[in-house]
Amino acid sequence: MNNGPTQVAGSFVEALRGQPLSLALVAMNLGLLGFLYYTGVVAAKERHMEMKLMYENRSEVAKLLAACYPTGPK
To answer: Which of left, alpha, beta for 55 (phi over 0: left; psi -120 to 50: alpha)?
Structure first.
């Protein structure tokens, strides 16, 4: 019976057992990737909210300007 992923994970841990610095670097890289993903998601949500507010403001200004349009001489 072949335990593919289990054997790979076991050999990976066994290879890094003698090199704790490499294991720490792998852990730091994974943590950094998680942090960057989180900040990207938060920034995208904030950007979406700001764009929505900008479009709402723009439409309100357009309505106000349309109401102030002069009709011409009478």
So the answer is: alpha
